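Here is one chain, start to finish.
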Amino acid sequence: MDGGKIKWFLNGKINASVNCIDRHIDFKNTTKDRDRVALIWEKDEPGSEEYITYRQLYEMTNRIANTLLSHGVSKGDPVVLYLPVSPIVVAAMLACSRIGAIHSVVFAGFSGEALRSRINDANAKVVITADQGVRGGKLIELKRIVDAAVAECPNVEKVFVSQRTGNQVPMGKLDVPLEKEMAQHSTECKPREMDSEDFLFFLYTSGSTGKPKGIAHSHAGYLLYAMMTHKLVFNYTPGDIYACVADIGWITGHSYVLYGPLLNGATSVLFESVPTYPDPGRYWEMVQRLKIKQFYGAPTAIRLLLRYGEEWVKKYDRSTLRTLGCVGEPLNHEAWEWYHHVVGDGKCDVVDTWWQTETGGIMIAPRPAGPHSEIISGMPMRPFLGIQPAIVDEKGEEMTGNDVMGALCIKKPWPGMARTIYGHHDRFLETYYKPFPGYYFSGDGGHRHPNGYYQITGRMDDIINVSGHRLGTAEIEDVMDEHDMVAETAVVGFPHEIKGEGVYAFVTLMEDVTEPRDEILKELKDLVKRKIASYAVPEMIQITSGLPKTRSGKIMRRVLRKIAANKPDELGDVSTLADPQVVEALVKNHQVIHSQHQETMKTMHK
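Its structure:
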């Protein structure tokens, strides 16, 4: 892995769409094809699901591929997708792979400005979106958001607009109605032969510098790793109904809604809604109705549903469940026990998985292992086949033996690993390979327990994991600093009983500010929501006269993290600060803000 020069299956030829669709279709027996379901689209309204066969997905994919070709999209061209969770986004991703284009899915909850930055960074000429999205009974104005973004994207030549709701939206000179255009094209499209190392997709994740990173994955290695991890971690067997409820805009959606399941010929559930719509029994009603065998969700959702009690779970038949998975951040002990004993009736394996956008697939998980091998709550436990973790100390030396803690690194390359940050390979090396030469550095801390099992101890860089979504603190700080009345911002994470981590911002204002602080707080939250996304909005903002800085002017973030975590007794030595008295004021102000936040949380969940 030295130098980040990573290549697998050199000169191998492949096409992702062929492996995901074509090879599961019996082209000589159309009757058999009708029974082979690829996707179950679990729409926002329960009970309105649609079934899409591999044959239907094949035809939809080819029509979109031909549409893109007719508008000049060719091999190597990035195509940005800003779409709801639906069959059209799956077909669009596969259509890009069929013709050799590179898809870049942007989560359809990002703001117009966040979308704009990703379109421009990818130099994309084509965007595919929908008229609106539907989520939790609410309409999301996707086309309007795309219009605002594309107005500042000079390279964009075409915006294809799919119909999700059918409601009228403004159509401009760049806009093309997708379904109308698809109807003019053939259901057959010859797949492009791709090299094993050609790029399959870019997926943007937050960076600690404030600039999102376009993580690039190639074809063959990524596809193999997604297929194998899906099959073995979840104990998938042919005929199972498998459900990963992640949004397609995240790496979990790529690897375990689309590529992993379809490569294995599975029936994969596309979940469009939210876990509490129309009530907190939504997941479990879906499990009963669709007869789901494997369920892969987020710790955030599990912790949220736990608060509503057992009755919303017990009223539904979950006897088909065999494997329960979670992804995003470590699942705490209480939530694990509830998931295992209440949701799974104590009969299901709980696979608490650790991996990242950069790894392409699951790296550490309790399974595969022998059927009677123990599973311990609160840790992913076992490296996947071929994965060699290392716990490394501050000097870059590997710590051997058990019961050691340090930086979690990987010693040997694996097929699914990212190849670069698109357009910024130096940044790729700087982030993942320079900190500990000879290793891939995950950015997480790890503890190898006395029994040899692995536990994740949290981020070691300036990344906050909110509901499984990684946010760079610098990205939020940059946005808040744009406010005319803000002099400086420092953002840290704090422990959140539902989201895992929440966002806490410490803000100093310009001199002589007269605007009411409540108005400033509202404006700052609105600014973050508009520039990034609603989940990035700080739950707690402390306006302060000063920040804890060293005499050289560096903000001592460990102090802020302890204050935000409500652990003033663990601040350590603050005598080296330029003004130690700042800390006393921060702690005092935090106590008021923390109490207000606790009351708000209680009110929300009554």
